[in-house]
């Protein structure tokens, strides 16, 4: 079985400091992973490696069966959707939801080619997957943060990726927009043709039960990379955060409280 991601002994050193240190991580088909780490733990650095934007100082990386260094990364990137909020401000505010999503097919900012009828219908189905078809004719600049995130994910689906990285998608969302986005992600994951999902976050309660595995990253090192059940408990999470935390489980989601010593 072809691995989705396979990192072995991956390190990245800058200015005498290891920003990633001996990272081993294997993602298999039909797994969905959450990547949990505090600010500065190395999550973005890791994603940059997976997408071939950074080169490891040491170690080997395979993504979708292709070894980085041995493959055309531009080709590889077409099979990876990387949704991060940094893209939000680059898109044209006057474009409609339809055009924003369709532009994902061509990986362009703005739409320059006339899409076929099939492409338009596929764009609609991507928006259905994200429960945001009501944004079809809406100007992008009039969308809320949560609506923009849904459009960006639908846009990434337009290229039919095998791997979809959701990079802190709930940042800046209020409680209800966050729940609406998480519910859309949950619906997306339940579809038969869903790509492998990697969900990057600082917050355990965003890690929906659909994420079968969790990688805990701290100061550039993998602390744990295992099934969610063996990670989402007070003992492992207190050890990981180096602070005592109490956990509350609501519908399979884990809410943390700092625990007075
Ligand atoms: N090009 C670089 N040169 C030197 N240090 C860097 C470089 N890029 C990142 N760093 C440092 O590496 C560490 C990890 O950064 P990274 O952005 O990967 O963390 P992160 O987990 O994504 O953080 P956040 O959750 O805040 O986005 C940080 O201390 C950062 O300052």
UniProtKB/TrEMBL annotation:
<protein>
    <submittedName>
        <fullName>ABC transporter ATP-binding protein</fullName>
    </submittedName>
</protein>
<dbReference type="GO" id="GO:0005524">
    <property type="term" value="F:ATP binding"/>
</dbReference>
<keyword id="KW-0547">Nucleotide-binding</keyword>
<dbReference type="InterPro" id="IPR015856">
    <property type="entry name" value="ABC_transpr_CbiO/EcfA_su"/>
</dbReference>
<feature type="domain" description="ABC transporter">
    <location>
        <begin position="5"/>
        <end position="244"/>
    </location>
</feature>
<dbReference type="GO" id="GO:0016887">
    <property type="term" value="F:ATP hydrolysis activity"/>
</dbReference>
<dbReference type="InterPro" id="IPR017871">
    <property type="entry name" value="ABC_transporter-like_CS"/>
</dbReference>
<dbReference type="InterPro" id="IPR027417">
    <property type="entry name" value="P-loop_NTPase"/>
</dbReference>
<keyword id="KW-0067">ATP-binding</keyword>
<dbReference type="InterPro" id="IPR003439">
    <property type="entry name" value="ABC_transporter-like_ATP-bd"/>
</dbReference>
<keyword id="KW-0813">Transport</keyword>
<dbReference type="GO" id="GO:0022857">
    <property type="term" value="F:transmembrane transporter activity"/>
</dbReference>
<dbReference type="InterPro" id="IPR003593">
    <property type="entry name" value="AAA+_ATPase"/>
</dbReference>
<dbReference type="Pfam" id="PF00005">
    <property type="entry name" value="ABC_tran"/>
</dbReference>
<dbReference type="GO" id="GO:0005886">
    <property type="term" value="C:plasma membrane"/>
</dbReference>
């Amino acid at each position: 079985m072809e691995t989705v991601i396979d990192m072995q002994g991956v390190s990245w050193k800058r200015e005498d400091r290891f920003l990633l240190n001996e990272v081993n991580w294997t993602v298999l088909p039909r797994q969905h992973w959450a990547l949990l780490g505090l600010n500065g733990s190395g999550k973005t650095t890791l994603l940059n490696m997976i997408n071939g934007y950074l080169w490891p100082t040491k170690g080997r990386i395979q993504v979708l069966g292709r070894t980085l260094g041995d493959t055309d990364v531009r080709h590889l990137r077409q099979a990876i959707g990387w949704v991060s909020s940094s893209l939000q401000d680059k898109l044209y505010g006057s474009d409609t939801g339809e055009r924003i999503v369709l532009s994902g097919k061509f990986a362009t900012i703005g739409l320059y080619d006339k899409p076929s009828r099939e492409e338009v219908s596929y764009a609609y189905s991507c928006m259905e997957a994200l429960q945001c078809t009501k944004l079809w004719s809406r100007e992008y600049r009039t969308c809320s943060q949560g609506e923009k995130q849904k459009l960006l994910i639908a846009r990434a689906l337009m290229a039919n990726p095998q791997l979809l990285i959701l990079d802190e998608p709930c940042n800046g969302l209020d409680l209800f927009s966050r729940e609406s986005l998480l519910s859309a992600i949950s619906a997306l994951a339940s579809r038969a043709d869903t790509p492998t999902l990697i969900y990057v976050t600082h917050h355990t309660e965003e890690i929906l039960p659909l994420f079968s595995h969790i990688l805990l990253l701290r100061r550039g090192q993998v602390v744990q990379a295992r099934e969610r059940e063996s990670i989402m408990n007070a003992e492992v999470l207190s050890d990981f955060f180096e602070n005592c935390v109490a956990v509350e489980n609501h519908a399979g989601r884990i809410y943390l409280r700092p625990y007075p010593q």
